[in-house]
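At this stage, I put together a protein sequence along with its fold in token form, as given directly below:
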Amino acid sequence: MVETQRLTRRAMAFVLAGGRGSRLKELTDRRVKPAVYFGGKTRIIDFALSNAMNSGIRKIAIATQYKAHSLIRHCQRGWNFFRAERNEFLDILPASQRTSEDHWYRGTADAVTQNIDIVDDYDVDYIVILAGDHIYKMDYEIMLREHVESGADVTVGCLTVPRMEATAFGVMDVDATGRIVSFLEKPADPPAMPGEPDKALASMGIYVFNWAFVRDLLLRDAQDPTSSHDFGTDLIPDIVKNGKAMAHRFDTSCIREAHAPAYWKDVGTVDAFWQANIALTDFTPELDLWDTDWPIWTYSESTPPAKFIHDEADRRGVAISSMVSGGCIISGTEIRNSLLFTEVHTNSYAVLDHAVVLPYVTVNRHARLRNVVIDSRVVIPEGLIVGEDPEADARWFRVSEGGVTLITQDMLDRRAASL
């Protein structure tokens, strides 16, 4: 444990949080994917940041690019407790044409390259590259230890997945020691893990490097006109071919209850986002947000407790198998299997069933909403019915392949203008 603590003191986390996440459709029209709300009160980026802090890493940088205002504001409000006098830092690094007036961040590797001088100032031995848009709980100390003990040039975090499901990932072909012998991007026939013919190792987009090593590699990559300046596309395959790349199995560092499955989600589509949020209302959800030993830190608004009012036969404020956040007022509404974020106000005779309702939404009387995601600050008009007629819903709203309807205020305004 002493060695692990020493390693985390000598490491920093570099969080890549610049991608839009276009598969979330209108949910990322006004915010970058890592800033999308999740789980009732958090944002997606809080998971990577919390993992770093809980692991003992106190030097963190966040690279931003696409529509970063809400992400920056969230980090300023919720992650402002780092103190430089304790050798703690959290820096936000917007794309700012620091190395050239011709381009912003051109790829994940270029985001680090453009900030080499800032990383140098941290005076660290190791850098942990993280994606800011996944939901999981992981102890990076364990991965750091494996990296140092193996003498690897890079250690890649890997998910264990059913082999044929790995066709959607970058797949690591490894030998019996865990050394990566080839890297395949979305292969039609993924290579199996040694001794487990039905399993494959898929990249999580998490990398551990010795800073001195990757610093030189980044500078060489920046001079290569044929490179896309991306870790997964360019740097990792090059190290696999010419250096020593090792795979770290997420199963060994995932934070979970005993015998629980390893939890990792890319909530990159409307269906996946809805499903992961609704799953939190299960009796025993796979993702434990109540774990005080590995808390998910976030910006917590000062709100009053949730309030439920009216108790009449057809006008009862009630929530069953649901999560209701602070500041909500459930006034004569029936809520089932739903997740309501902060300051959602619902009115009499409305019904919410399998609904994910983002903050500051108002649901007016007699609305019936099933299998929906409602964007923040939406005002649902009186009597609106969604989730019962997919063809009618698709006329005004976005209906996903899985039958989930996404509702935004712009969609409602267009509907109102046509009526």
Notes: Residues 303 and 361 are 15 Å apart (CA to CA). The chain has two domains: 7-255, 307-417. The mean pLDDT is 94. The radius of gyration is 23 Å.
